[in-house]
Automatic annotation (TrEMBL), chain A:
Organism of derivation: Pogonophryne albipinna
Protein role: Acts as one of several non-catalytic accessory components of the cytoplasmic dynein 1 complex that are thought to be involved in linking dynein to cargos and to adapter proteins that regulate dynein function. Cytoplasmic dynein 1 acts as a motor for the intracellular retrograde motility of vesicles and organelles along microtubules. Probably binds BUB3 as part of transport cargo. Required for the efficient progression through mitosis.
Protein name (Swiss-Prot/TrEMBL): Dynein light chain Tctex-type 3
Keyword Cell division among record annotations: yes
Localization per Swiss-Prot or TrEMBL: Chromosome, Centromere, Kinetochore; Cytoplasm, Cytoskeleton; Nucleus
GO annotation terms (biological process): cell division; microtubule-based movement
TrEMBL record, chain B:
Gene3D superfamilies, per database record: Tctex-1
Name recorded for this polypeptide: Dynein light chain Tctex-type 1
InterPro entries attached to this UniProt entry: Tctex-1-like, Tctex-1-like_sf
Family: Belongs to the dynein light chain Tctex-type family.
Any GO CC annotation of this UniProt entry: microtubule
Pfam families (UniProt xref): Tctex-1
Organism: Pogonophryne albipinna
Compartment(s) of residence: Cytoplasm, Cytoskeleton
One MF annotation (Gene Ontology) recorded for this entry: dynein intermediate chain binding
GO biological process: microtubule-based movement
Top-level taxon: Eukaryota
Keywords in alphabetical order: Cytoplasm, Cytoskeleton, Dynein, Microtubule, Motor protein
UniProt KW Cytoplasm keyword: yes
Length: 114, 113
């Protein structure tokens, strides 16, 4: 793919990852209500779909995709991430999505292969 | 540094990482009860402590540390992660910790350089 031939080809584009992740979440969970019996399948489906789409981009990266789905009952949820890597080439993107009955937080980490 | 370093010196050792995580979590939130005003500071402190202990190990790895703290009030929480990496050199470790008022889930991913 030769859309941008500048040096930014070797850095992580978080906007692209954001839109990939949103599509994957909507594709898997969409308008469904939180259901304990399905949630396992959803989280697995979301991470696998995101990973497949990211790998299809063909960039020289290793990826880690994490997903947390939480039922809306008023509980507090906090997440934090910290990374020890090459800040010029590696990057991450976190998408927070919700519907009427649940929250979904997906993080993608991309680590460049030397 | 010994010339005789075995592969273990440059592999991701799950037990070692798990121990580091448990110590960081206990030192930060130990016996505290869930408090909305402090939880931000706790998650930051847990990930930073884990990361500094991990980098002190001196192994040729890049690390990603993820921490989730959730108040116990009956809500369901499910987390999943998947990785596209080199199976022979990279690894991960997740620790689930709880006390009377909250759950804490910490995941560490180590990618070999």
């Amino acid at each position: 793919m030769e859309e941008y031939n500048s040096g930014s080809e070797s850095s992580f584009h978080s906007e692209e990852a954001d839109s990939i992740v949103k599509e994957c979440i909507e594709g898997v969970v969409g308008n469904d209500d939180y259901s304990q019996s399905s949630v396992n399948k959803w989280t697995a489906g979301i991470v696998e779909r995101c990973l497949t789409q990211l790998v299809k981009q063909g960039k020289p990266y290793k990826y880690i995709v994490t997903c947390a789905v939480m039922q809306k009952t008023g509980a507090g949820l906090h997440t934090a991430n910290s990374c020890y890597w090459d800040t010029t080439m590696d990057g991450s993107s976190t998408v927070r999505w919700e519907n009427r009955t649940m929250y979904c937080v997906v993080s993608v980490f991309a680590v460049a292969i030397a | 540094m010994d010339e005789d370093q075995t592969e273990e010196e440059t592999a991701f050792v799950v037990d070692e990482v798990s121990k580091i995580i448990k110590e960081s979590v206990e030192a930060t939130i130990g016996a505290n009860a869930y408090q909305h005003s402090r939880v931000n500071q706790w998650t930051t402190s847990v990930v930073e402590q884990c990361l500094s202990q991990l980098s002190k190990l001196g192994k040729p790895f890049k690390y990603i540390v993820n921490c989730i703290i959730m108040q116990k009030n009956g809500a369901g929480l499910q987390t999943a992660s998947t990785c596209f990496w080199d199976n022979s050199t990279d690894g991960s470790c997740a620790v689930r910790w709880e006390n009377k008022s909250m759950y804490c889930i910490v995941s560490v991913f180590g990618l070999a350089i």
